[in-house]
Amino acid sequence: MVYFPPLMNRERIRNFSIIAHIDHGKSTLADRLLQATGTISEREMTEQVLDSMDLEREKGVTIKASAVRMQYTHNDGQVYELNLIDTPGHVDFGYEVSRAMYACEGALLVVDASQGIEAQTLANLYMALEADLEIIPVINKIDLPAARPDEVAAEISDLLGTPPEEILRISAKSGENIAAVLQAVVERIPPPQGDPDAPLRALIFDSHYDAYKGVVAYVRVFDGAIAPNDMLQLMATQARLQPVEIGIFAPEMRPTDRLITGEVGYIATGLKSVGECRVGDTITLASRPAPQPLPGYRHPKPMVFAGVYPVDGEDYEDLRDALAKLQLNDASLVYEPETSQALNFGFRCGFLGLFHMEIIQERLEREYGLDIITTAPSVEYEVLLRNGEVVRIDSPAQLPDPAEIEEIREPWMKIQIFTPTEYYGVVMELVTGRRGVFIGQEYPTPNRVQLDFEMPLSELIVDFFDALKSRTRGYASLDYQFAEYRPDDLVRLDILVNKEPVDALATIVHRDDAYRKGQALVSKLKELIPRQLFAVPIQASVGSRVISRANIKALRKDVLAKCYGGDVTRKRKLLEKQKKGKKRMKAIGNVEIPQEAFLAVLRLRDE
Description:
Elements: E1 13-20, H1 26-36, H2 54-59, E2 66-73, E3 79-86, H3 94-102, E4 106-112, H4 119-130, E5 134-140, H5 149-160, E6 168-169, H6 178-188, E7 201-210, E8 214-223, E9 232-234, E10 240-241, E11 245-249, E12 253-255, E13 264-268, E14 282-285, E15 304-310, H7 316-329, E16 334-340, E17 344-351, H8 354-367, E18 372-374, E19 378-379, E20 381-385, E21 390-393, E22 405-420, H9 424-432, E23 437-445, E24 448-456, H10 457-460, H11 464-471, E25 477-488, E26 490-497, E27 500-501, E28 507-510, H12 511-528, E29 536-542, E30 545-552, H13 568-588, H14 595-603
Parallel strand pairs: 1-3, 1-4, 4-5, 5-6
Antiparallel strand pairs: 2-3, 7-8, 7-14, 8-13, 9-10, 9-14, 11-12, 11-13, 15-17, 15-18, 15-19, 16-17, 20-21, 20-22, 22-24, 22-25, 23-24, 26-27, 26-28, 26-29, 29-30
Helix pairs in contact: 1-6, 12-14
C-alpha cells in the first residue's frame, strides 16, 4: 500500500468526480485509475473496489458515494494529489450527487461507445455545469464489437462544443489509454480555491455509521484547516463535537494529523445518528465559526411512501431493529409505526424514490433475513381544508372526511425522456395516457430526441419505468425532478370485502380513472380471494357510492347426498336449514385475504 507524505502545496491538488449513466463503466474506470496510480496492489484488487455492497455489484449501480485519494507522478516530475469523489448513479440520489459535485473542480463525463448519451448522463452533466466544473469527456468501451466511437464523439461535440479529436477514447475494462485520463485530470482540472487563513468551512458530501467511531463524515475543506484536537460545530444542526479521528481514504480510512484547504478526507465525529450529521451541512470551528455556511444545504425529503409489514407478526420487533440500523447509515429513510386491519402491525416508510425503496426492501430481506410485505407505494398529498388549514398525508387512510376538503393537491414532476426517434409516438402515447403534459423537445443528435413532459408522481411510481423500457426495447432512458404541488379532482377509492373496508387496498386516484381502476381491482380480487362457505361481495366505492361490485360464490356442501328417497319436503327442509346457516355464517364470517391481493394494486397496469 502506498504511503502518502504530507502535501502542503494546494496547486498540486485535483478534486474530481466521474459522471455517467447507469452501466456505462464508471466504477470500472475508478478501479483502473486506482491500479494505474498504485493506490491498490494487484493482490488487493477486486472488481468495483468502491462499490462495496453486494447490491451495488449486482445492479451495476453505485448506491453510496465514496471517496479515494491517489498520488500521481506527472510527466513534469511533480507528484499530484488526486481526490476522486465517486457519486451515486441513480436519479433518486440527485441531492447527494449535487453535493459531491460541489466538492469538486472537475468531472470525467463517461459515455458508453455503443449506447451513446442517455438521460442520466445529460441530467448529471447539467448539474456539473451548474456547479461550474471543468468537464473532460471520455468515450468508454471502445473495444466492444458494437462500439461506434466516431458517432458518439460527434454527439458529445454537438453537446459540449469539444472538438471530436480531443475527446479521450478508452477501454476501462482492458485499461487502454487510462494514462491519458490521469494526464487530462492534472492538466485540465484547476486546483482548488479557498482561503487557508479564513474560519474553517468544510462540506459534508456523504457519511456512514461506524460502530466504534460513530458517524464518519466525508468532507471537502473549502477554507481553513482541521486538526484532531479542534472543537467543531455543525452549522445546520448546531451539534458540537470533538473528532475521534481525522484522515483520508486510501481507499481504506487512514488517520492523518490535519486536513488543509482544498483536501478531501473524513472526520470520525463520535455522533450516534446520521441525522445529526447530514449531507450538505457545513462544519466549522466552535471557537471561530464561519459567518456563512456553504450554499445548497437542504433536508432530503421522502417522495414515495409505503407500508412495510412482517409476514409473521412475531417479527415486528426484528423489523423495527432492522429499520433503526438501516437509518443509522441512511438519514433519508424515515419510518413510523402503523397499524392496518388487514396486515396488523408494521411501519409506514418514506423513501427518496422507487429505486431507494427497492434497495431498502432487498436489504431488509437479505441482511436481516426478514420476510416482509410491502404495500403499493403512494405519494405525499397536500389537502386544503375548508377552514383554510393545509395538511399533508402520505396514506389514503389519513384522508379527511370529503365534506371538510376544499381541494387535494398532488406532486407533479418534470420528466425528460431520451429515446431514438423511431419510438417518439410510443413514448408520447405512454406519457399522455398517464395524465402527462407535453412541454417541448430537443434533438441533441439527428436520430435521438429528448422529450420534456410534466406528469403526476403517482402515475410515475407504479411501473412507468418498466413500461417505458419494454415499449422502447430498453433504448429509452428517464430522468425526473420535482416541479410543484397542483390541485386536481382526486378521490379516495375504497375496496370493501364482505362489506368491510380494507385500508391496505385503498388508493387515491383521479376521478376520471376511478371507475376503470375500481372495476379492474374488483375483478382481480375476485380471482385472488379464495371461496368461502358463504357468498362474499367485493365492492369498490368512492365516498358512499359503490362504483363496481363482484360476488365470490359460496362453497356449497351437498346436504342432499344422504337423501336417497322419500318426500320432496324432506329435501326442502334440509335446504332451508342450510340457507339459515349460511345467513348466520355470513353475518359473523371473516375473510382471509392472501398477500397477492395487496400486490394486485401494483399489477393493474399490466392487464
